[in-house]
Amino acid sequence: MNDVLTSTLVPLALGLILSEFTEVAPWLARRILRLAAHRLRSPEHSERYEAEWVALLDERPGKLLKLFFASWMALRATWELRAIHRPSNSSSADSRTADPQGEQTPRRRQQVRTAFHRARLRWFGGYSYAGRYYPDRRRWGSTAAMRRRRRNAALGLAGP
Amino acid sequence: MRTPFRITSATLDVLEAFLVTSEELHGFAVAKAAGKPTGSIYPILARLEQAGWLNSHWETEHPEEGRPRRRFYFLTPNGTQEARAIVIERRGQLPTPATSRPAPKPAFGFLTRWAGAW
Prior knowledge:
The complex is a heterodimer.
Chain A: H1 2-38, H2 43-59, H3 64-84, H4 87-91, H5 94-98, H6 107-124, E1 127-129, E2 132-134, H7 143-155
Antiparallel strand pairs in A: 1-2
Chain B: H1 9-20, E1 25-26, H2 27-34, H3 38-50, E2 54-58, E3 71-75, H4 77-91, H5 109-116
Antiparallel strand pairs in B: 1-3, 2-3
Helix pairs in contact in B: 1-2, 1-4, 2-3
């Protein structure tokens, strides 16, 4: 019975599932693109990008490739497009000149990153240089300090 | 030169793709010419369009039966000037069709020729 299952039924079921999935893939790709376009939260841009991406989707050969393409667009493009076409960005020209270099990173993300950065400096010490964080290697509990204590203990030296 | 957005190397590739050709390009053609994935091209196009460097319109000719219409992008006169200045500043020279040709792909013709020798 087990042999019949493993040799016939399981491959048959897998084949059926795979063929069904392949058939469904283009439809699923369109749904993903529609969802991605609607995540832009601007009806005008949603409609435009949906039509544009569906046209691109039709040019892609293969069924599974369409699905990969749609997933990639949803993952890669939507996030940034949403930040670019945010109502405050697109409606007023002043906001464009106020923060010209920060358009690629959403403002909320920048604020969270800055707060996290400051908290880390306050709690764990260390310093930051050119936008990078360098931990305080002399701090109690740091890996460097632990290695130093171990080495000093092995050498019979006192001190931290 | 101060720009209304950050100029990345992908942005320069897209600008070069537009400067090389005098035709209007759709998203897939831009991605192909710039050698970048389509997903990363659209944010760049949106940013350039928002800055007024690019303009776009829907396909006006009747597309083939059942094919959805495409959107074409082209540089505005102001965008062309800005793009030229930026590309010269960052890359040292303007792209020419010969230099912007994509790298040759490996040819596998030797396999078929080798198989034919048997």
